[in-house]
């Protein structure tokens, strides 16, 4: 059975090039092309393609928004981001929104075609550079969690009070300890969380709480 594909891409030449190569395959067919977000948003639900090749930066909205709005109505459709953006925020927002693949424009057409087949069969295809970023993000996250687990109960209490904006003296008074002891706890917190200052420590603490 042929894989049905919709392309959402405002760059006409790239959109048409993708269509041409895809339609040349015996196992897949482009059933719709969209050149802006609104058009895609209005029509994708009725078409319900197997795979959507989605650009992120469209003239009227982000491709990420389209996925967020349509994912519930198109549970069987697989979205692959095909974009020139490689920044962490866009990658993770895309994946959070429900994209199952993330390719960088400039990938070979062979890679794009194999990614369509891959995602259709339950895979999560990514450009090499993107896969590395995703892996290193989770490695960092695991290291952060480990650091937080190493904090003693008292160190966690001190960090909680720091995050509330209390000064060392106020923390010392509240916990009936000396300022030097507070400083010692704070030094341990920085070392265990691999941070260099109070702002970084509080950011990590807030990250753990959420």
Structural features, described:
This protein has 210 residues and is an alpha/beta fold. It has 2 domains: 3-134, Response regulator (Rossmann fold, 3-Layer(aba) Sandwich), CATH 3.40.50; 151-209, Winged helix-like DNA-binding domain superfamily/Winged helix DNA-binding domain (Arc Repressor Mutant, subunit A). It has helices at residues 12-23, 37-47, 63-70, 88-97, 109-120, 128-149, 153-163, 168-175, 179-193, 198-209; strands at residues 3-8, 28-34, 51-54, 78-83, 101-104. α1 (12-23) links the parallel β1 (3-8) and β2 (28-34). The longest helix is centred in the middle third of the chain and has 22 residues, at 128-149. The radius of gyration is 24 Å and the shape is elongated. The mean pLDDT is 86. The modification 4-aspartylphosphate is found at residue 55. This is Two component transcriptional regulator, LuxR family. One of its GO terms (molecular function) is DNA binding. It comes from Chryseobacterium soldanellicola.
Quick structural summary:
Residues 4-120 form the Response regulatory domain. By secondary structure, the chain is an alpha/beta fold.
Structural class: alpha/beta
Number of E-state strands? 5
Order of adjacent strands in the largest pleated sheet = 2-1-3-4-5
Profile the largest sheet. 5 strands, parallel
Summarize model confidence as the mean pLDDT: 86
Q: CATH class of the largest domain, anyone?
A: Alpha Beta
What helical percentage do the residues reach?
Answer: 55-70%
The H-level CATH homologous superfamily of the largest domain, spelled out, is Response regulator
GO molecular function: DNA binding
Keywords: DNA-binding, Phosphoprotein
Organism: Chryseobacterium soldanellicola
InterPro entries: CheY-like_superfamily, NreC/VraR/RcsB-like_REC, Sig_transdc_resp-reg_C-effctor, Sig_transdc_resp-reg_receiver, Tscrpt_reg_LuxR_C, WalR-like
């Amino acid at each position: 059975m042929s894989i049905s594909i919709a392309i959402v891409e405002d760059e006409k030449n790239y959109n048409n090039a993708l269509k041409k190569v895809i339609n040349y395959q015996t196992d897949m067919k482009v059933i719709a092309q969209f050149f802006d977000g609104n058009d895609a948003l209005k029509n994708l639900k009725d078409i319900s393609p197997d795979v959507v090749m989605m650009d992120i930066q469209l003239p009227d909205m982000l491709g990420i928004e389209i996925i967020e709005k349509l994912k519930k109505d198109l549970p069987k459709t697989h979205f692959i981001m095909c974009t020139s953006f490689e920044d962490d925020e866009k990658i993770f927002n895309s994946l959070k929104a429900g994209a199952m693949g993330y390719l960088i424009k400039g990938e070979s057409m062979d890679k794009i075609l194999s990614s369509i087949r891959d995602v259709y069969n339950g895979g999560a295809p990514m450009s090499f550079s993107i896969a590395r970023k995703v892996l290193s993000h989770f490695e960092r996250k695991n290291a952060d969690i480990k650091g937080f687990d190493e904090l003693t109960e008292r160190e966690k209490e001190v960090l909680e009070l720091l995050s509330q904006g209390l000064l060392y003296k106020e923390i010392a008074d509240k916990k009936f300890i000396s300022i030097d002891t507070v400083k010692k706890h704070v030094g341990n917190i920085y070392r265990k969380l691999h941070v260099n200052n109070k702002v970084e420590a509080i950011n990590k603490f807030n990250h753990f709480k959420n």
